[in-house]
Amino acid sequence: MYQVDLHMEVHWVELTSRLSSLSKLALDDCKLDNMSPSLKYVNFTSLTSLYIYGNHFIHEIPNWLFNLNTSLLHLHLGGNQLTGQIPECLGKLKCLESLILEDNFFDGPIPSSLGNLSSLSLLALSGNRLNGTLPSSPWLLPNLVLLYIGNNSLVDMSSTSLTFEGKLIWVPSFQLEYVDMSSCHLGPNFPTWLETQTSLFHLDISNSGIIGIAPTWLWKWASRINGWIDLSNNQISGNLSGVWLNNNMIDLNSNFFTGPLPKLSSNVIVLNMANNSFSGPISQFLCQNLNETSQLEVLDLSNNDSSGELPRCWKSWPSLSHLNLGNNNLSASLEDN
């Protein structure tokens, strides 16, 4: 069921658990107020999927969930108001393939017992108030593909206080496709384990305390990420004059990058390189030769040190709808071009 008003059904857990053959239970956005947290046991002997997203559970994860350790494959409790710490007992649900606890009010550390979930391919813990050191056990999950742990510990509006406890030389057992580690304290060193990830489509490590020159392997490796790459709001430096950017959406905003602006492929749709120290003639960037018609729609180069007259190259960017070149050293007017 979806968006059915069940706020009067205070005993929905007890009632549905009588359906011993029930394999999937979905009650998203049904205005449920509790998950019967005082219950110790329920008879969900065949339940493989539990989807209860977007309700109003202002209590801790109930103990009866941990009795589903032989059947449950998918546990989705995101978008509620669940409180307390994420319990270590979740590690008993060893058949889990996806675990979504995002957008709740969980605090405290990420439990090390999550490393027992060897079949887990999706782990979503973002948007809580988690803090402390990220344990090493989740990084040993061999089948992990989608990882969301960003935007935690919102009390001081810094988004998180998670610290990554990874070694500089480390080869994880998984191959991720989607990584959201925004506002996790990954720095000060750039996380070198990312170089081992060859299947990424989305990478967000913005605002993660990374300081220093980007590693030499980064840009060639990043060009294989067809989707989104977000390195914004760090202190990453380096000269990008020989770099070729190939991602659909790229955010390098608020770093310390220098030199002439990089080259683009026609695949780039959104590019934000504002608030850096790029320099050199703007014409070299705007008049670059592309092998195919550019798809670029959004370009923000504001607050850099690019210079020169605006060239007559706008026909090279037929899809461009948003342009910000403010606070550079440019001359001429758009009317002249």
How would you describe this protein?
The chain is mainly β. The protein has helices spanning 12-16, 218-222, 282-286, and strands at residues 24-26, 49-51, 74-76, 98-100, 107-108, 122-124, 129-134, 146-148, 161-164, 178-180, 202-204, 211-213, 228-230, 235-239, 244-245, 249-251, 256-259, 263-264, 270-272, 277-281, 298-300, 305-309, 322-324, 329-331. The strands form four sheets. The protein has a 13-stranded parallel sheet with strand order 1-2-3-4-6-8-10-11-13-16-19-21-23, with no helix packed on it. The chain is elongated, with a radius of gyration of 24 Å. It starts with 11 loop residues before the first helix and ends in a 6-residue tail after the last strand. Mean pLDDT is 88; it is low at 154-161.
Keywords:
about 325 residues; mainly beta
Write the layout of secondary structure elements.
Elements: H1 12-16, E1 24-26, E2 49-51, E3 74-76, E4 98-100, E5 107-108, E6 122-124, E7 129-134, E8 146-148, E9 161-164, E10 178-180, E11 202-204, E12 211-213, H2 218-222, E13 228-230, E14 235-239, E15 244-245, E16 249-251, E17 256-259, E18 263-264, E19 270-272, E20 277-281, H3 282-286, E21 298-300, E22 305-309, E23 322-324, E24 329-331
What is the gist of this entry?
The protein is 4% helix and 24% strand. With 337 residues, it is mostly beta strands.
Helix fraction bin: under 10%
Q: Could you give the order of the helices and strands?
A: HEEEEEEEEEEEEHEEEEEEEEHEEEE
Largest sheet: 13 strands, parallel
Structural class label:
mainly beta
List the strand order in the largest sheet.
1-2-3-4-6-8-10-11-13-16-19-21-23
**Poorly predicted tracts of residues:** 154-161
Query: Taking all residues together, what is the mean pLDDT?
Result: 88
Query: Could you give the distance between the termini?
Result: 57 Å
Instruction: Note the total helix count.
Output: 3
Q: What's the total count of β strands? A: 24
Indicate the proportion of strand residues. Answer: 15-25%
* Shape assignment: elongated
Q: How large, in whole angstroms, is the Cα Rg? A: 24 Å
